[in-house]
Design brief:
This protein has 71 residues and is mostly helical. The chain is 66% helix and 0% strand. The protein is built from one helix and no strands.
Length: 71
């Protein structure tokens, strides 16, 4: 069962401020997630191409292990 809607304006000012701040943070999180998704969508083809190239180089024994100390 859903609880009845609360009129935010009827709450004390400090509670209103907390709700507004929470909503701002929530919206910012959603925007950040969308930016990540957009970036991933834009770079997915490059990632696939890199993976195919790596797989091909491994098959042709042209791949070399990564030296993590040189990164």
């Amino acid at each position: 069962m859903l609880s009845p809607a609360i009129n935010i304006e009827s709450l004390p000012k400090d509670k209103q401020d907390k709700i507004v701040e929470h909503l701002k943070e929530y919206i910012q999180d959603l925007q950040d997630e969308q930016k990540c998704k957009n970036y991933f969508d834009k770079t997915q083809d490059k990632l696939i191409a890199s993976a195919k190239l790596a797989k091909q180089q491994i098959a042709e024994e042209k791949a070399t292990p990564i030296d993590y100390n040189k990164l």
